Amino acid sequence: MGFSTIGIPGLIIILVIVLILFGPKKLPEIGSAVGKTLFEFKKSAKDIMEDNEPPKKEEKKPDPVQ
């Protein structure tokens, strides 16, 4: 069972609970912090994936004949 089975009603319930716990004044701060965290996570994951790729072989062009 994963997050894909939550559905729209489940998301609405979660949002209402978060609104009750933190209040409307803190929600923009929390949203901003979550957004920045996800951005940094994606950036780090992309950097790691690029580091793990094997280096591309450079094709050598034939020397021009003089």
From TrEMBL:
Record keywords, A-Z: Cell membrane, Membrane, Protein transport, Translocation, Transmembrane, Transmembrane helix, Transport
Bilayer topology: Single-pass membrane protein
Any one GO biological process: protein transport by the Tat complex
Molecular function via GO: protein transmembrane transporter activity
Keyword Protein transport carried by entry: yes
Compartments (UniProt record): Cell membrane
Gene3D superfamilies: 1.20.5.3310
Chief location bin: membrane
Transmembrane intervals: 6-23
Keyword Cell membrane among UniProt keywords: yes
HAMAP family in the record: TatA_E (MF_00236)
Task of the protein: Part of the twin-arginine translocation (Tat) system that transports large folded proteins containing a characteristic twin-arginine motif in their signal peptide across membranes. TatA could form the protein-conducting channel of the Tat system.
Entry's family note: Belongs to the TatA/E family.
Full protein name: Sec-independent protein translocase protein TatA
Protein species of origin: Pueribacillus theae
